[in-house]
Amino acid sequence: MAKIELPKLPYAYDALAPFMSKETLEFHHDKHHNAYVTAGTPMIADGTKYAGKSVEEICKMAFEGKDQPVINQIGQHYNHTHFWNWMKKGGGGKALPGKVEALVTAYGGYDKMRADFIQAGTTQFGSGWCWLAVKGGKLEVMKTPNGENPLMHGASPILGCDVWEHSYYIDYRNMRPKYLEAFVDSLVNWDYVEQMLADVK
Ligand code: MN3
């Protein structure tokens, strides 16, 4: 059966300060992500059409079938499971692993990618995510509402940033662009981005 569980954070709750506080991570991981797992678990249990499917397959099936509750809960479980790994202490900046750098260079370079990613996150109206995704071998900057992700739109996500207010309001109040700048410049775990790129089919 498809089984989901709340993963442990891959670092201490205070590891990302001052860019993301312990308090933000406690609420965001322990309360918000946990709520998606709790609500999503019965939706994909044995006896449902999602039993035995991977979380990635469930995301695509749910979007295809316009199954909004599953898009919301399982989409958000997928997004957050990677989100914790997309950050690390001492992350961010321009030192990209080779294959990621090649993709970004083909896109138009680091500065363009950084500006477009921050712009996508800033202009996502209401809750959602901004992304670096791969489609047809090329890098795309995307934004999606609520719990959606690039898998649901025929692309493979390699980096995502949560722009729901619960992700930044404690640390940045209403200044979403400042949060996005800190994410790119000081938090991104490019090694994990490279790992996801390696898994793109
Ligand atoms: Mn969130």
What is the structure about, briefly put?
The protein has 201 residues and is mainly alpha-helical. The protein has helices spanning 22-40, 55-64, 68-85, 98-107, 110-123, 165-172, 176-187, 190-198, and strands at 128-135, 138-145, 156-162. The protein has 2 domains: 22-85, Helix Hairpins (Orthogonal Bundle), CATH 1.10.287.990; 98-198, minor pseudopilin epsh fold (3-Layer(bab) Sandwich), CATH 3.55.40.
Number of domains: 2
Percentage beta strand: 5-15%
How would a crystallographer describe the biggest sheet?
A: 3 strands, antiparallel
CATH class of the largest domain: Alpha Beta
Helix content: 40-55%
Give the strand tally. Answer: 3
Distance between the termini: 24 Å
Which topology of the largest domain does CATH recognise?
Answer: minor pseudopilin epsh fold
The CATH architecture category of the largest domain equals 3-Layer(bab) Sandwich
Class derived from helix and strand content? mainly alpha
CATH homologous superfamily of the largest domain - what is it?
Iron/manganese superoxide dismutase, C-terminal domain
Mean pLDDT score, rounded?
97
Number of helices: 8
Task: Write out the distinct hetero groups bound to the structure.
Answer: manganese (III) ion
Order of helices and strands: HHHHHEEEHHH
Give a description of the structure.
This protein has 201 residues and is mainly α. It has 2 domains: 64 residues, Helix Hairpins, CATH 1.10.287.990; 101 residues, Iron/manganese superoxide dismutase, C-terminal domain (minor pseudopilin epsh fold, 3-Layer(bab) Sandwich), CATH 3.55.40. The chain has 8 helices and 3 strands, in the order αααααβββααα. The radius of gyration is 16 Å and the shape is globular. The site of manganese (III) ion has 7 residues, from helix 1 and helix 6.
